[in-house]
Amino acid sequence: METGHTRSRCRSHPLARAGLVLSVLALGLLFMDARVVRADGDLAPLSSVGVPKRTGGTIINNAAAIKLGKALFWDEQTGGDGRIACATCHFHNGADNRTLNTLHPGPDGIFASGGVTAAGQNFFPANIVNDDRVGSQGIVGSIFQFIDPNPYNAADLCTPDQTAPFFHNRRVTGRNTPPMIDAVFNRQNFWDGRANDKFNGNDPFGNTENQLGQIGPTVTNSSLASQAVGPPNNEVEMSCKGRPFNGPNSLAAKLLARQPLRLQKVHPQDSVLGGLSNWPNPGLNRSYSQLIADAFGPFVAANAQNTFSRIWGEAVQAYMSTLISDQTPLDRYLAGDKKALTSNQEKGLNRFTGKGQCSKCHPGPELTDASISFFNKNGAINEDGGDQGFHNIGVRPAAEDAGRAGLGPNGASFSESGSPVDNGAFKTPGLRNVGLRAPHMHNGGKKDLAAVVDFYSRGGDFPNPSKRMKELNLKADDQAALVDFLQNALTDCRVAREEAPFDHPSLSPPNGAFVPATGGGHTCH
Q1: What CA–CA distance (Å, rounded) separates 243 from 374?
Q2: For 105-207, where are the E strands, in sequence order?
Q3: Which residues contact 339 (CB under 8 A, 6 or more apart)?
Q4: How far apart are alpha carbons 390 and 394 in whole angstroms?
Q5: Which CATH number is 329-491's, of 3.40.640.10, 1.10.760.10, 3.30.420.10, 3.40.50.10860?
Q6: Contact status, residue 317 vs residue 225, Cβ threshold 8 Å
């Protein structure tokens, strides 16, 4: 206990004051790890960030739009073969964990990874050292003819188009599936950001030169709506080639004539659709026309066949905007629960914000510089001179995949800056639940988080323009702590358990295990 006399002596002797200062400095150095973590003002619970406000939309009842959007997102009848929903590529913690027929051979057309020599074989996560990619399988190549007039048949009438390299197998996307959980915070979506933050009601490209049309007013902060209208009629992902979104003989005509989720069961405790469930029978007890009228009003519902792409985009965005994983151990830790992380995870957090330099690209509550809030705070250009939130970090040579510098349907680049550093650049993903969704990177080329951390420690695999990529030469214990932090401290238990708001209807992914319906949820502790 310090007495008044002692305090007086300390004040009266400069050397004593200097000794006290040195002691304090030594104490600070001793606890450097904790001090660095606390000093990083960018880190905060995800719950501290509001859901970005969208303007210009036509939804009149957001709760009803969430119901409609969830039904559309999970409905297998959407697929040209009647077996593919948006969720078919996002059913496993927001991503896809199937292994059979999930390898894409890349530009050289040669399957040469993990023992795979042709389409239709099993590929288990392995570190890829060539131009192969891990993607998600969609539809067998086919050309659209007609919507089946029988509402009890889910498949469209199509003719075969079974071309190389997949032939009779389902086609596979050329990039790894990015998770849709927490994607509401991204300014633009897809790995290359082509899902524009301004939704034009028709296609993913906003008001850019790649725009193919406009239906209704532009909606801001709506890259999720832009993203949502891309896959449904894509000839690789979900549809026979050539199927239109709107009008007669279209996806609109197909779904408006069919019972929502007719092939799937909806749990009676589903947090969104439970009250509409036909449990224990499949489907909902309300038509798509009724769901649209509830969300957009009767006038929109009466003309839904002609504006279905707009309805689809806005409704799916409303649903995906609820998929926020803000109950991770890190979120609890940053909110004041210092027991939420183990000592090794605290060390990993320190390396994440310190010598690992991870937080340079994964800053803020969203853990990504591709967020709307980071863009608004720091501007449109990153330190390399390219688009904010997109970086070429040397995963693969840019010649294999232009990424952000890729061209849209009208020949315009997705890059907004036009900088050459955007060639081969990809969006920085958020990191919550990253431990649940191996493999990693845009090409799926890193089999696990240990491989990812090692990649950054050595400064990438290929020459790249990013000033942030450096040889860090992290020690083995530092790498292990980082992996522990990423694997365990960023997982929301509700995502892992498929509980609300991440509960869902049943799903039968082609070449994958049946996914039963789930409902209800709990708070993580």
Answers
A1: 38
A2: 133-134, 137-140, 142-146, 157-160, 170-172
A3: none
A4: 12
A5: 1.10.760.10
A6: yes
Single out the residue of 374, 350, 501 nearest to residue 428, CA to CA: 374
Q: What confidence score (pLDDT) does residue 22 get? A: 33
Pairing of β 170-172 and β 137-140: antiparallel
Rg (C-alpha) for the chain, rounded Å, is 25
CA separation for the pair 447, 177 (Å, rounded)? 14
Q: Are 245 and 229 in contact (CB under 8 A)?
A: yes
Query: Do residues 436 and 497 make contact, with C-beta atoms less than 8 angstroms apart?
Result: no
Look at residue 521 in the predicted model and tell me its pLDDT.
84
Per-residue tokens: 325: 């994983």
**pLDDT, tens digit (0-9, with 9 covering 90-100), for 29-76:** 333 333 333 334 489 999 999 999 999 999 999 999 999 999 999 999
Number of Cβ within 10 Å of residue 217's Cβ equals 14
Alpha carbons 108 and 128: distance in angstroms, whole number: 14
- Could you give the CA distance from residue 132 to residue 138 in angstroms, rounded to a whole number? 17
8 Å CB contact between 226 and 189: yes
Q: What is the pTM of this model?
A: 0.92
What letters, b where the CB count within 10 A reaches 16 and e where it falls short, cover 76-92?
bbbbbbbbbbbbbbbbb
d(CA 287, CA 304): 13
pLDDT of residue 497: 96
Start and end residues for every CATH 1.10.760.10 domain found in the chain? 62-98+136-320, 329-491
* Residue 219 contacts residue 181 (beta carbons within 8 Å): no
- Whole-number pLDDT of residue 524: 83
Per-residue CA distances from 509 to 24, 98, 121, 424 (Å): 60, 9, 16, 31
Closest to 488 measured CA to CA, from 340, 296, 311, 357: 340
Instruction: Give every CB contact of residue 101 below 8 A, 6+ residues apart in sequence.
Output: 119, 120, 121, 137, 166, 169, 170, 172, 511
The DSSP letter of residue 89 is G
**Cβ pair 73, 86 in contact under 8 A:** yes
**C-alpha dihedral sign at 468, 473, 475, 479:** positive
- Residue-wise pLDDT for 411-460, tens only, equals 999 999 999 999 999 999 999 999 999 999 999 999 999 999 999 999 99
Report the CATH architecture of 62-98+136-320.
Orthogonal Bundle (1.10)
The two three-digit tokens of residue 144, written as one number:
């659209």
With 0-12 / 13-18 / 19 or more C-beta atoms within 10 angstroms meaning exposed / middle / buried, residue 15 is exposed
How many separate helices (H) and strands (E) can be counted in the chain?
15, 8
CA–CA separation, 478 vs 481, rounded Å? 5
